[in-house]
């Protein structure tokens, strides 16, 4: 059984593995504030072969170098959260609008089981989604929802879409049976060429959003779902199929399209390319 080590002991352990410290006092404070195992996800790329128990560091690797990468990753998360917010608001709005106008009383279709296909993931039941929707609405304290609850009326989609989680909204979209609605939403984003590609991209964006929301590492992390190389992705450089750079590139294109300028992609590119190793960890991850 492993016992808890003091920060001084952890620094001593890292030094025995050839990690260089320019200022141990600053390093102690940083480790206290940021957690040794959180940082370990960043320095694994600089270790010889940690998967096989060789935790020694490559020659010249410093603690300060790892911290620099760590801080760039934190800055990147902030940019990504902002961009994801822009896309999410736009996507919610368009989905709600086209749904509400798809037929008479279309604003309440999301509350009907018949609006959703029965194809679900493993360990899910077809009606689980509707159950989740109702639970999220019931626990909401937003005035736009309480207004309808007090009147004992169903909540229209334009109000519901503001309080449902993005994960839930993405599931609604992926299972929506009215393909005309899906088509209109997809075509409103020039990047989405088909229903299948739209679902795949949104699923990856939801995963990225979750990583950012939990302050998780983006750098040197492979995607859960690979993103095939497309001509439009080459605008931002070559990257591996499971690299975070693939979905970040898609987000940059989407936000630039929504904002009708390239300021978002310009700022992210400036941040990510200022450090060669940081950029490499995004385009060619190893973990």
Write the layout of secondary structure elements.
Blueprint: H1 7-16, H2 24-34, H3 36-43, E1 47-49, E2 54-57, H4 63-100, H5 128-139, H6 143-150, H7 157-160, H8 166-175, H9 179-188, H10 195-213, H11 244-259, H12 263-272, H13 276-283
Antiparallel strand pairs: 1-2
Determine the strand fraction and express it as a percent band: under 5%
Instruction: Tell me the total number of β-strands.
Output: 2
Which regions have little confidence, pLDDT < 50, spanning 5+ residues? none
Structural class: mainly alpha
Give the helix level as a range of percent.
55-70%
Q: How many strands, which pairing sense, and closed or not: the largest β-sheet?
A: 2 strands, antiparallel
Oligomeric form: single chain
Which word captures the global form?
A: elongated
Mean pLDDT: 94
**Helical run tally:** 13
> Distance N terminus to C terminus?
26 Å
Q: Which strands sit side by side, in order, in the main sheet?
A: 1-2
SSE order, one letter for each helix or strand: HHHEEHHHHHHHHHH
Radius of gyration: 23 Å
Textual characterization of the structure:
Among the domains are: 55 residues, no CATH class; 109 residues, no CATH class. It is an all-alpha fold. The protein is built from 13 helices and two strands; from the N terminus they run αααββαααααααααα. It has a two-stranded antiparallel sheet. The mean pLDDT is 94.
Question: What tags apply to this protein structure?
Answer:
287 residues; mainly alpha; two-stranded antiparallel ribbon; 13 helices; elongated
């Amino acid at each position: 059984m492993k016992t808890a080590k003091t920060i001084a002991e952890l620094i001593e352990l890292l030094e025995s593995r050839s990690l260089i410290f320019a200022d141990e006092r600053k390093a102690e404070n940083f480790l206290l504030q940021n957690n040794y195992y959180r940082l370990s996800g960043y320095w694994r790329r600089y270790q010889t072969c940690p998967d096989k128990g060789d935790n020694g560091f490559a020659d010249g690797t410093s603690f300060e170098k790892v911290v620099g990468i760590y801080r760039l990753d934190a800055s990147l998360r902030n940019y990504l959260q902002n961009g994801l917010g822009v896309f999410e608001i736009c996507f919610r709005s368009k989905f709600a609008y086209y749904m509400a106008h798809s037929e008479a009383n279309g604003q309440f279709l999301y509350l009907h089981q018949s609006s959703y296909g029965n194809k679900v993931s493993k360990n899910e039941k077809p009606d689980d989604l509707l159950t989740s929707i109702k639970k999220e609405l019931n626990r909401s304290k937003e005035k736009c929802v309480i207004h309808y609850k007090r009147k004992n009326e169903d909540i229209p989609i334009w109000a519901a879409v503001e309080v449902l989680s993005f994960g839930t909204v993405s599931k609604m979209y992926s299972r929506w049976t009215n393909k005309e609605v899906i088509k209109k939403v997809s075509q409103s984003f020039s990047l989405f060429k088909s229903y299948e590609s739209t679902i795949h991209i949104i699923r990856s964006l939801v995963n990225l959003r979750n990583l950012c929301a939990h302050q998780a590492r983006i750098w040197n992390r492979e995607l859960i779902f690979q993103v095939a190389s497309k001509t439009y992705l080459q605008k931002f450089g070559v990257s591996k199929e499971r690299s975070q750079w693939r979905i970040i590139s898609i987000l940059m294109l989407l936000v630039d399209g929504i904002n009708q300028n390239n300021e978002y992609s310009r700022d992210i590119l400036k941040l990510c390319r200022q450090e060669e190793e940081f950029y490499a960890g995004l385009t060619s991850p190893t973990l």
